[in-house]
Amino acid sequence: MTRAEVPIPGFCSVVVGGQRCSRPRASEPFPRSCCSPAAAAASCAAGSWCASVSLRFRARGSFCSASSWKTVSISDLRPVTYDGSICGNDQNGTKIAVQFRSGFSWTVSFTKEASTYSIGSILFSYNMSDSTTFPDAKEKGIVTVNDSVAIKIPLDDIFRCNSLSVLKENNVLQYFWDVHIQPFVQNGTVSTKEFVCDEDKTPTTLAPIIHTTAPSPTTTPAAKEKPEVGNYSVNNGNGTCLLASMGLQLNITQDKVASVININPNTTDFTGNCHTETALLRLNSSTIRYLDFVFAVKNENRFYLKEVNISMRLVNGSVFSIANNNLSYWDAPLGSSYMCNKEQTVSVSGTFQINTFDLRVQPFSVKEGKYSTAEECSADSDLNFLIPVAVGVALGFLIIVVFISYMIGRRKSRTGYQSV
Ligand SMILES: *[C@@H]1O[C@H](CO)[C@@H](O)[C@H](O)[C@H]1NC(C)=O
Ligand SMILES: *[C@@H]1O[C@H](CO)[C@@H](O)[C@H](O)[C@H]1NC(C)=O
Ligand SMILES: *[C@@H]1O[C@H](CO)[C@@H](O)[C@H](O)[C@H]1NC(C)=O
Ligand SMILES: *[C@@H]1O[C@H](CO)[C@@H](O)[C@H](O)[C@H]1NC(C)=O
Ligand SMILES: *[C@@H]1O[C@H](CO)[C@@H](O)[C@H](O)[C@H]1NC(C)=O
Ligand SMILES: *[C@@H]1O[C@H](CO)[C@@H](O)[C@H](O)[C@H]1NC(C)=O
Ligand SMILES: *[C@@H]1O[C@H](CO)[C@@H](O)[C@H](O)[C@H]1NC(C)=O
Ligand SMILES: *[C@@H]1O[C@H](CO)[C@@H](O)[C@H](O)[C@H]1NC(C)=O
Ligand SMILES: *[C@@H]1O[C@H](CO)[C@@H](O)[C@H](O)[C@H]1NC(C)=O
């Protein structure tokens, strides 16, 4: 298994005993179908295992085109059955068998030793005869890929691997993340001890975001790209009273690991309200319960971002909430808008910061739904400010050079006159 990126919080629900996961979203870097409820029976195995599969097959050529490779992503697992799942005991291992849609099946086998267990094999099979998924497949029939992962884990521990792992075998790419599994639950009690996979152990010498250099040979999620810019507005019944457009990237640090999440404007809702002295922009999505931006007026002539208040669901089901009402960002005169195209960071707390891109906001005095003139952040104007300085320095230098050459020239001509 190889590591490819920090998990995106909030995508899967935590499972003990088996439950559905949230539906895959178009915003994902690649299609993920979610959480096979890994626990065949809560009494013998518990946990969750998020998986997604992408596979290629050779499509038949036609009269005028050659055969070609096509890619299929299995993005919705339902309906799901668990036939063939076995509760492990001293003789036989635990097996989690999942069948979904038509002809797909996925089986993970665990074996038990005296004081350890291991994840033996991960089998994935699909039916190329299924003409809905493989409409013009050249070959027909059932294809099975078998991967083995030889990891030994103490019997009483939950195996945890939040990091994205990629298994590649022939034409099948399997992505796994948020794996929390205890295949041999002892005495009916789910353990609290975790065995953490290497990928989750952040090397202390490396910044956690570095694994964007995905070693996987095929298309894996690229480096955390810039978030898409969303256009947000608030209407107070009299027309638009607040305007904002910005790309937002959340950076949550927990247990020294930073997770960076881009907000996808396509799947984000917004509301808010406007008063004379304060204005609120609230965003929410399936994982973000609310992300509030509260603006205020100071000295009766300027506005600024005063408060950020967030509550969001993380991968493991816990809720992350932070508020800070003593901020001072995005400061501009009333009647104008604030603009910053460069990346800027709003540091809400030691564990939470928001990176903004191509930012423009106007929380007060919006006229006819349009932005007023913008006051630009100093980061944007850095260069503009440097240009005259550079020109000045160059000019000064030129003058000095001219002056020195003039002096040398004069001295030379003087000595010349004297020698004659
Ligand atoms: C958002 O929607 C637009 C238009 O439908 C699309 O071009 C864009 O790729 C979508 N962005 C994401 C992150 O899904
Ligand atoms: C182990 O599996 C075999 C066949 O799969 C079965 O016949 C046997 O009863 C199982 N043993 C136990 C103790 O469940
Ligand atoms: C399970 O129960 C047995 C006997 O009741 C006990 O010896 C053992 O330590 C228990 N194991 C765990 C993991 O609690
Ligand atoms: C709407 O606009 C009118 C006229 O400009 C103003 O008198 C009224 O107070 C406004 N209502 C709200 C809710 O802002
Ligand atoms: C996320 O936050 C951490 C800790 O504050 C910081 O070291 C890291 O550079 C940040 N990452 C991004 C992409 O902003
Ligand atoms: C945002 O919140 C509203 C009201 O609570 C809810 O109806 C809506 O579905 C939420 N939007 C998303 C994208 O979850
Ligand atoms: C979820 O993960 C965070 C950080 O990894 C941790 O602080 C929190 O306790 C976890 N919550 C649960 C319910 O496991
Ligand atoms: C943050 O929002 C929550 C829910 O709306 C609210 O209860 C809480 O008081 C807010 N915190 C601050 C500091 O405003
Ligand atoms: C708010 O921030 C200012 C400076 O950033 C600081 O001096 C002040 O003590 C803070 N107030 C509170 C209540 O945290």
Describe this structure in words.
There is one protein chain. This protein is mainly beta and 420 residues long. The protein has two domains: 190 residues, Porin (Beta Barrel), CATH 2.40.160.110; 168 residues, Porin, CATH 2.40.160. 10% of the residues lie in helices and 44% in strands. It is built from one helix and 25 strands. The strands form four sheets. Strands 1, 2, 3, 9, 10, 11 and 12 form a seven-stranded mixed sheet that branches. Strands 13, 14, 15, 22, 23, 24 and 25 form a seven-stranded mixed sheet that branches. Strands 16, 17, 18, 19, 20 and 21 form a six-stranded antiparallel sheet that branches. β6 and β7 form a beta hairpin. It is extended. It starts with a strand and ends with a helix. One 2-acetamido-2-deoxy-beta-D-glucopyranose binds next to loops. Belongs to the LAMP family. This is Lysosome-associated membrane glycoprotein 2. Pfam families: Lamp2-like_luminal (PF01299), Lamp2_2nd (PF21222).
